[in-house]
Amino acid sequence: MRIATWNVNSARTRADRMADFLLRHEVDVLAVQETKCSDDKFPYSRFEEIGYEVAHVGYHQWNGVAILSRVGLEDVSTHFEHQPGFDKDPSAEQQREARAVGATCGGVRVWSLYVPNGREIADRHYDYKLRWLWTLRNQVSEHLAAHPAEKLLLMGDFNIAPRDEDVWDMGFFEGRTHVTEPERAAFQGLEEAGLTEVTRQFTEDTRYTYWDYTSGRFGKNEGMRIDFQLASTALAETATAGFVDVEERSGKGASDHAPVVVDYSLGPDFDSVR
């Protein structure tokens, strides 16, 4: 099974690019983030016509997540249990955002996640980000304790660079989000809950997955590694290869993120589904 994750920075703008990517790399499942549209505006037909089922969660023109699968799409969840919400006004109702969608695809329980950005360390959004991650961590820990043999995969834009080498210049990020110890601890918490980050082992030569549009960052390779696939033990041990599609980031009209692709060898049961 070939599984990819990609923050596309507008699904409607890049629907054709997404379809070309799926066909070019023969992707079985694609987790998408930052679709930037409501459910009724998502370009379902563009993917259905090439053989993919679609699950999308989007409430308006911000955030938005989706799963595209050509190996089945069952038991769709539009959020994880106890998923926190947010409103910039602390006295207002904290509304759940379109940041998580789950489905079972070819025997693998897949989640597409768009972790809150955090904005600035002193911003309420930073606290929301940490609360969101630790709530997710607790749900994963409880779930894998009850289902240790499940093939579970959490992937997406985590908005965290877990190590110093995951950013082009730590000095530039001093006093900024994405590299703080509480964020990194929250990411590590997911690994301690029973998940393995499977992409790094295949992508050390092309480690970055995001390059800001500003200041010519891509041309200077001033990037960040913030997009990941985190797999349960039963799935992680089947990972055989992976890559970051940097070429996709280099084209005209590209997203500021590159797709991250991993191959999993799931045996004859999956081959029969495919």
Automatic annotation (TrEMBL):
Instruction: Please indicate which residues carry the site annotation Important for catalytic activity.
Output: 227
What Enzyme Commission number(s) appear in the record?
3.1.11.2
| UniProt cross-references to Pfam families, sorted A to Z | Exo_endo_phos
**Residues the record marks as active site:** 114, 157 (proton donor/acceptor), 257 (proton acceptor)
Q: For binding Mg(2+), which residues are annotated in this chain's numbering?
A: 7, 34, 157, 159, 256-257
Source domain of life: Bacteria
Q: Which GO terms describe its biological process?
A: DNA repair
Q: What sequence ranges are listed for the domain Endonuclease/exonuclease/phosphatase?
A: 4-257
- The site (Interaction with DNA substrate) lies at 257
The protein's UniProt keywords, in alphabetical order, are: Hydrolase, Magnesium, Manganese, Metal-binding
Q: What is the UniProt remark on how the cofactor binds and its stoichiometry? A: Probably binds two magnesium or manganese ions per subunit.
Instruction: Tell whether Manganese is among the UniProt keywords.
Output: yes
Residues the UniProt record annotates as site (Transition state stabilizer):
159
According to its UniProt record, which cofactors does this protein need?
A: Mg(2+); Mn(2+)
Q: What family does the entry list? A: Belongs to the DNA repair enzymes AP/ExoA family.
What is the name attached to this protein's record? Exodeoxyribonuclease III
The protein's organism comes out as Corynebacterium lowii
Name of the encoding gene: xthA
